[in-house]
Structures are given as structure tokens and as C-alpha cells.
Amino acid sequence: xxxxxxxxxDLGVRFVTRDRTIHxxxxxxFDLDSGEVLCILGESGSxxxxxxxxxxxxxxAARTVMxxxxxxxxxxxxxxxxxxxESIRGRVVSMIFxxxxxxxxxxxxxxxxxxxxxxxxxxxxxxxxxxxxxxxLELVQIPSAERRLAAYPHELSGGLRQRAMxxxxxxCRPSLLLADEPTTALDATxxxxxxxxxxxxxQEMGMGVIFVTxxxxxxxxxxxxxxxMYGGRFVEEGSVRDVMRSxxxxxxxxxxxxxxxxxxxxxxLTTIRGAPPNLEHLPQGCAFAPRCDVAEPVCNLAVPPLNxxxxxxxxxxxxxx
Amino acid sequence: xxxxxxxxxxxxxxxxxPAGYWQGVRKRLLRDKVTLICAGLLLLILFAILAAPWISPxxxxxxxxxxxxxxxxxxxxxxxxxxxxxxxxxxLLFGGRLSWFLGITPVAIAFVxxxxxxxxxxxxxxxxxxxxxxxxxxxxxxxxxxxxVAISGALGAGIFNAILALTMVFIPxxxxxxxxxxxxxxxxxxxxSARASGSGAFTIVRVHVLPNVLGPIFVYATGLIxxxxxxxxxxxxxxxxxxxxEPEWGLMLNTLRTAIYTQPVVAMLPGACIFVTSIxxxxxxxxxxxxxxxxx
Amino acid sequence: MLLYLIRRILYAVPIALSxxxxxxxxxxxxxxxxxxxxxxxxxxxxxxxxxxxxxxxDKPLPIQFGLWLSHVVTGDLGRSLATGRDIWPDxxxxxxxxxxxxxxxxxxxxxxxxxxxxxAGANVGTWIxxxxxxxxxxxxxxxxxxxxxxxxxxxxVTLNVLPAxxxxxxxxxxxxxxxxxxxxxxLPAVTLSVIxxxxxxxxxxxxxxxxxxxxxxxTLRGKGLRRSGVxxxxxxxxxPNALAVMGLQxxxxxxxxxxxxxxxxxxxxxxxLNTAIFQRDIPVLQGTILVLAMFFVALNLGVDLxxxxxxxxxxxx
Lengths: 321, 296, 317
Prior knowledge:
By secondary structure, chain A is α/β, with parallel strands linked by helices. Helices cover 32% and strands 23% of the residues of chain A. Chain A contains eleven helices and twelve strands. In chain B, helix 1 (21-31) runs antiparallel to helix 11. Chains in contact: A-B, A-C, B-C. At the B-C interface, helix 5, helix 6, helix 9 and helix 11 of B face helix 1, helix 6, helix 7, helix 10 and helix 11 of C.
């Protein structure tokens, strides 16, 4: 009986408005241990960010319908009261975002945005909170920290902003960190720095990390395990090595074929034809079948189960069970 | 071989007004009960005031010294009589014609003049934009009521002067809205590309700019009708618009002020008419705005 | 920042000049010889001649404007046709009364509007939103001169609890912060406050909705801030734009009080204007409008500067 940090069973998320219902997440299962890094890989609209937000119950409450169970650090996220949820967010689990410019409040200083978090969760005095904020900026390697505390987000560079964002997220030493494409909006050189920083902090603090990205290279850099998401479902799961070397699902294979990396010099890049599925009306069978070159009639009958070994499996009829 | 299933057609996203746009607008309007009720009420009022000469129980100017200030429900005078013994219902019906005329005409004229100037300023840019917008700024430096009172106060009472004053009040805000919207459309990628591919300015305005800017300007102008009716009646209330004995809601309200001690309910009727009309115009404008998805 | 300040202040100068030009032109768009608009018809010939010379009425318009401006900047707004008295002292007294009325209305309208607008914005799409928006629409749609009469009928005629006319019981004017004077202020102030209430509600709702839709709100909730903590952030983000709306509305209150002042015989600038219109006293009309418009220009400048001062995003550029 393992006590995993995160336990997700049959998670479904729908957005319901008067005009339509969007089926964003359709039955996701996974576990995450402390100190483990899981990468969720997928295109925009695959449901990866929604899954991440569901772990903190941050999807817009009024039009979100959540099904299944989610446990984070022993808390049942679906049934917890909003008040309890507020004390879990930022303390047990916290999140960093893609675009630090818009994810930080533009009219509060970096220092204020860090200290309000630690004051909120740990009841520190203002002086203690200020000291903690200084330590945190040093932890995320922001130079001249004292001066940066008094700066507004727009006064920092993109890389420094994302470091500040990380400092806020780590300010109460959470056991789970959710990262929603935290390097996508950054320059390539800064990307690598942020990834290395995250990797180091994750190891030092022993956090579990769920890292969402559409970039295979980034996933390979930071992950222990990879889950590929398509049409609101995990279509392939496995270790970084297995997924990168011997992808099972045609979609994953397509992603690998469409990615530029050194090993491909001299070979032709391939593309995946067609467009992502319409989440209003998902097909009855495999959501990827309409774009799949090797699809068979059986693919359209029902959603295939995850076939293969528990260590590396995929939702494809071509993978032996 | 790939399967025989046709892939789901990707849904196209463009920033231009899509083909089904007006169908969507109609669908949203038909579902908006408040807007529909208000529009119906406005049509009813419009019909009643247009038909005033045929449905009014009395001639609008015929007074009677012995039948002054009768209450609501007085035999033959369902809404009572005014301070000169004239039938209130009749005068409300006839008065609505002038009030509506005074409310809508200035906005309509300002829509044409201000819309043209604003689109020109937004599309031309440069010194022409500078000139038009700086002059607009000057008129913006007056609170609207004050500007209306100043102009019609200097010109003197009269319907024509009131319309002139109100038109002057509404041109600057319409110019501003038209300029902002046009500048926004002008900088959209597809207009840039039309320009790059050598389309003439006139063609670009006609094909790309006007269809996208007229809606927002129109919606904004409909919102001004309510203000215009209140202001127009307000001018008459001050003795600046319509002159007695012509019936007009604001003027009637003014002359009935003396009656608030004897017949308060009758004295309030003209104002209630202004209120109902103005609130309906406001709600219809809001409904149009959200149905057409126009950002203010 | 300093550069912006200087530019903004310098930009107000041509606006102020153009505004005074428009006011100057009022005399000239009035039908007939401008001299008839400035002097009573029975003025002696030597007075007519001296005024003609003083304002250069026989000279081209630009020179006339310069002469008029040189009088105006020294506080000489001319004389009233109706009373023959200097305009400025009467106008100053009226201005004070209008300021009191506008401030009271702003206090009521802005606080109600902020509360209703925030409530609506935080509960978009619910019945709370619909009620608040409904109140706002009613506020901007009501002819306030009519509302004033309704209030008089209810509170003065029927209930007889509040006075219907004037700013003080003796009618002598003057003002003091006591119940006797406050009683006179209540009805006109409440009546005048419905429009700013409606407009502030609509705008604050829009601003709050926009702020709540921004990404950083998710960050704040993700940090575990309570509702009250998030509200602090929303308010600080909404403040600059909300203040700008309120500043404009204060100006509209000053310039738009004419109808309410007429209904309640409140001895302010609006009442002065109404009397001037009634007596076709163009110099008083011109002077009052000039002073009110200048006040509005100054207010706009003040709001812009204040907005820049409290918004860190604008402080840099």
C-alpha cells in the first residue's frame, strides 16, 4: 500500500455554459510519489492545463463540473470545503504559470506578493516575512535581491519575473509543485536556466512536480515520467526513456517526428495532418483516429484501454494488451 | 491505408465578421426577453404617438377654464386635465411626437456627422486625425448638459436651436468612439494585408472597415438616444426647447409643476413617460450591445 | 514621469484657451448685435461707446477675443444685464453652493455606485448582478428633474418631513454644517446623485469584471489567499480607472446641476444660469459657463495626474 502524494482516479472535467458543453478532461488516472517529476505532454486544448488546475480546484467554479476523485497530500480535493481548500493552496500544493507578466499582479511589488503568501499561511510578522522573501529571492538566484523586492513586475526581465513567480510558489515549501508551461514564454537560453533551477530546487526540497508542456525537449530535460495527453485522456504513459525511444501511440510517434532535434539532421520532418478534436463532440472511439494514418474501423467503435505493461502503456488497439 | 472516416472539419477562426454573425445576433436577441419586451414597448409608444391625431379623445390645444386640473379618471378625461383644462392623455400622445423627434434627430445627425469624421480621422491618421481629435477634445472639455444649455441659451428658445445644441453635444463622443474603433480595425492584420496588396483606400474602407465599425458606432449611438430624450426634455423644462402651447413632455412637466400640491399624480405623468421611454431605449441598446458582442 | 507631468500640464493650456474661445463665441452666436447682448437696451450712448471701446467691438474678432481674455483673467467677467452688478461676486457665492451640492451628491452616488458595481462585478450573471445593473440603468434613465419633483411630492408635500426649496430656512443663502442646513441639502443631493450612481455602478462593474478575468487572480487564489485578500488586489487594480470615472462625474455634477437646482431653487450656478437664460442675460450666462468649464478642465487635469501618481504601471512611462 503506497502512500502516493497525488492520486487521481477517473477524473473528468466539463465546462458547461448555456450554449455548449466542453468535455475538457475525460477519465484521467495517475499517481505521483514525493520527489517524482511527471510531465504531461500535449497540444493546446488537450486538457493538460485543465487537469493541472483541477488538482487545485482552480477551474472557474460556476461552470465547471468535476467528476472522479482527486487526492493531494491526503486531502480529497472534490469534497474539501472552500475554506480548507484555501489553506491547502500555496501551502501543500502551489502552481507556476506560463506568462509571469500576466500571472503577477502588476500593481503590487514582488516583495508584497511574496510576503502576503507567507503571512497568510505561516502567520509571520512583517519583518520575518521580509527576511523570508529575501532568502527566497536568493534561493531562486535573483541578484540584488533587496532592490528587487521593491520592484514591480514590469520592472523585471522575463527570466527574473519567472524566478520571482517560482519564489512565490515555493514560499511555503509545498510538497507538490504544478508547473503550467513555465518556460514557453521565455527565450531559449533563459528556458534552460529556469529548467535547471527547477530541477535543482525539486531535488533539494524533495517536491513532487507535475510539469505541463507541449515541448518534447523540455519534457526530456526535466521529467522522470511522461504522460501524453490527447482529447482529454492520457494516451501514453511511461518513463522518459521508453516514451522517447520507443513511442507506442501513433500520436506520440507523430509528435516525435514533428520535432526538430540534432539526431534528425538530414531526415525529413513529418507533420500530423488534420486538427485537434472538437471537445464539444468527441468521437465515440479513439479521439485520434480521424487523424491517424494507421487507423482501422475498430478504432471508431470504442475508446481503447491503456494497453501494454504498467511501466509503459498506450491507448491504442495496435499495442498488445 | 487510412480509415474511411472523414476527419472532423476544423472550425475556422477569423477576426473578420464571420458569415453566420448576423444569425448569431438574431438568435441572441430573440432569447433576450428584457430587450424584446422593451423593444415591443417602444414600438407600442411609437405607434400611439404616430396615431395621435386619430386616437386622441380631444384636440390638443382646446382648454377649458372650468375643467382645470381634474384628477385621473375624470369622466371623458381618463388621465385628467392640465392647468389650462386641456386633456392630459391627448397632450401626452401629441407631446410624445416632439419628445421623440427631439431625442432621436440630434443623435441621428450626430451619428452621420460624427461617424464620418471619426472614421476619416481613424483611417487617415496623421495630421487629419490630429486636427479632428484636438477639436473634439475642446468640446469634450464641457460637461454635456452645460454645453447644451450654453449653446441653446445663447441661441434662444426654439426647436431648431435645441436640435442644433444637442447635435453639437453628441458629435464629439461619437467621433471618439468611431475613431477608436476604426483605428483598431485599421491595425488588424487582414486590413494591413489588403493595404499591402495594393487595394485602394476607398475599397478598404468600404469592404473591410465600414462593416466592422458601423455596428459598434450604431450601438453606441442608440445608447445616446436615452440621454438625448432626457436632455431635450430638460431643455424644454428650462424653457429652452419647445415653446408653449406646443405639447412636449418636458415642457408639460414644467407647466404642471404648479399642480404638484393639488394633482401630484397627474403632474408626474409626463415625466413618467420620459422615464419609461428612456429606460427602454437604454435596455434595448444594452441588449444590442451584448447581442452584437460589442465592447464598450 | 516628470516629462509626462510637464507635457500633460502644457497640454491643458491650449484646451483652456480653446474653451474660453468657445465661451467668447457664445455672445457672437446670440442673435443680433453683440452690444445688445452685453448691455441693456436702455443703456446711455456714452456707456455704449465706452464698452464698445473697452471690448474693441469695432475691431476684428481675434483682437476682441484678446481684449475679452485680458479682462477675464483679472476676474472681470463684466456686468449683469438684469442687475447691473459685477458678475464675479454673485458667481463666486453661487459656485460655493453648487460645490456643496455636487460634493454631497458625489459622496452618495460614488459610494453607492462603488458598492453596487463591485457586487455586480463579483457576481456576474447572478441575480445580484441583474439587480445592481437594473438599479444602474434606472439611475441613468431617470429624468432627474422629474425625480426631484417626485421627491418633493413624497417628502415635502405628503410626509412634510423635508423642505422643498432653497438652501437655508431664511432664504438668505449662506451655509453651515448643521441639521437646519443639511435638511435642505438632502433632497437635491439625493436627486442629483442618481446619475453618477448609475454611471459609476456600470463602470466599476466593468472594471471589476476585467480585473477578475486577469491571469493573476488565478495566481492569487493559487497562493491560497482568502476572498478578502483577493479583494484587496482587485480594489488596488481597479482604483486608477474607477477614480478617473469619478473625477469626470464630479465635473458633470458641477455642470449638470442646472435642472436639479431649478427644481429645488438651490441658489447655485445652475439657478444663476436658469435666471440668466430666462432674462436673456448673456454676460452672466457666458461668465458662469466659462468658470464651470474651466473648473472641468482643471478637474480633468487633476484626475489624470492623480491616476498617474497611484498607478505604478503608468509611473514608469
